[in-house]
Structure prediction request, 167 residues.
Amino acid sequence: MKCSNCGGTLKKHKENYMYKESGLDNVELIGVPVYRCGKCKESMVEIQKTIELHSVISFLILTKGNNLSGKEARFLRKNLGLTAEHLAEHLGVTRLTVTRWETAKKPLNNDRDRALRAFYTLKRNNQLAQTPFIKKLIEFIISNRPTNPDNPKLRIPTEEFFDCATA
Ligand SMILES: [Zn+2]
Prediction:
């Protein structure tokens, strides 16, 4: 691979990387491929499977102990593709209130924090169900579900699941 800046050769390294592009300042990716130019020191980070990665980050944020920070609240909203207006409308607050939470001008109180997490958890689960391999897996399980209505077994084909997940 050639450097887009000087045409030099890029070398691949594995590095730890603070994932600031996420909008969060405490996410470190361990051992990500970084392509660095030997000539001008230009570098390019390769972040793969961002949908899954953002899902994992969302999960970690949603299950943490203390209240959400403004940056975390914004990450969750953006990751779910929601506008501040949509969120404000759903929670019965103004758009300005949402902006104040996210810029940490007025931190979330406990009740709002719980309401936000419940809302995001629901949205996130719906979104996960739309993730191609999870969607495929769910469709497969449903189409193969035994018709016995009393306590049918939940048969989950892990082999297909992991094959799809890593494809
Ligand atoms: Zn270069």
